[in-house]
Amino acid sequence: MQSSSSSASTPAAASGLVFDLGSAAGVPETHAWPGVNEYPSVESAGRDVVPVVDMGVACPDATRALARAADEWGVFLLVGHGVPREVAARAEEQVARLFVLPAPDKARAGRRPGEPTATGYGRPPLALRFSKLMWSEGYTFRAATVREEFRRVWPDGGDDYLRFCDVMEEYDREMRALGGRLLDLFFMALGLTDVQFATGETERRIRETWTATMHPILYPRCPEPERAIGLTAHTDSGFITLIMQSPVPGLQLLRRGPDRWVTVPAPPGALIVMLGDLFQVLTNGRFRSPIHRAVVSRERERISVPYFLCPPEDMTVAPLASALLPGRKAVFRAVTWPEYMEVKHKVFGTDAPALEMLQLQVDEEEQGERAATT
């Protein structure tokens, strides 16, 4: 994770709500981020083509494509996924309606200061770690409790409330089912047979107990996009993130040698699959969580709907036996979700990646072998 000189130290960073960014004539100093253009931005082309995985092709082909994308990028565009376009369209429409509600309605569901992972409306949770404000607003809610959560926005219920909850529950069902199908492909990519991942206790528990959190984000038009950031550089923390986005590119991936930001395309119907830190732990580092950020546009606003699949709080995450290559040992120690988030909050905004805090000591020979393959 990239470092930042803008660690949280001001009242603005503790506030749960945002300004009316859509009507801003310029980028105020509160939202001006230094270093936004430290690395060049490039399109998805040549050696920087963002991989595409088609779940509609034969299973062995999809598994090979997924394994290659997860190993080399940790993220890919997913097509042939079986999620009806009308389901995604309805979800995007309802999210857009949510963000255009009057400020007092959204304020009823504001995040509580000092609780960066709390549900509710306001700036994205990770934004609370910085004094500079990001050019975005978001709403975090647990998919299983959408009706309870959105009574904060629509306390009297009504048609708008029911329509929003119905659509979000429909979207949750589709995303959860897709997550299960993807998990099967990831297990096959690790070398497990159908019988092994159907009968393996850990593999079965992941599927049966993982939790789902949704975090719709609005990135308004920005009069000076070169001075602002929609979402600062970070890695996702959980297992797998499924992202539905407007047909407006804005997600960027950090690639090394030389360092550059690769803009992810936004083809209609495609979803983005992003791997999280704990999936990197689960696969013993074979599949990696990418550093990514969101930039903003002068001409168009953008909606993104990340759907996070994460372990339950009481689950201990450790490298799967199937992820250990012959002669190799576990790279990471076991950790629970709360333990990992505590580590990540401590190092956020520094040059110390949280995953390094979980790494186990290995002998020099094995370190050399690993270095030669990365």
Question: What do these coordinates show?
Answer:
This protein has a single domain (40-361), classed as Sandwich (Jelly Rolls), CATH 2.60.120. Mean pLDDT is 87; it is low at 1-16 and 364-374. The longest helix is centred in the middle third of the chain and has 31 residues, at 159-189. It is globular and about 60 Å long. The strands form 3 sheets. Strands 2, 3, 4, 5, 6, 7, 9, 12 and 14 form a 9-stranded mixed beta sheet that branches. It starts with 10 loop residues before the first helix and ends with a helix. With 374 residues, the protein is α+β, with helices and mostly antiparallel strands. The protein contains 11 helices and 16 strands. The protein has helices spanning 11-14, 59-72, 85-99, 103-107, 146-149, 159-189, 194-199, 201-209, 277-282, 337-347, 364-373, and strands at residues 41-42, 52-54, 75-79, 120-122, 137-142, 211-214, 217-219, 231-234, 240-245, 251-255, 260-263, 271-275, 292-294, 302-310, 316-317, 335-336. Helix 3 packs across helix 6 (159-189). It is 31% helix and 18% strand. It catalyses: gibberellin A20 + 2-oxoglutarate + O2 = gibberellin A1 + succinate + CO2. Its EC number is 1.14.11.15. Its cofactor is L-ascorbate. It is an enzyme of class 1 (oxidoreductase). Pfam families: 2OG-FeII_Oxy, DIOX_N.
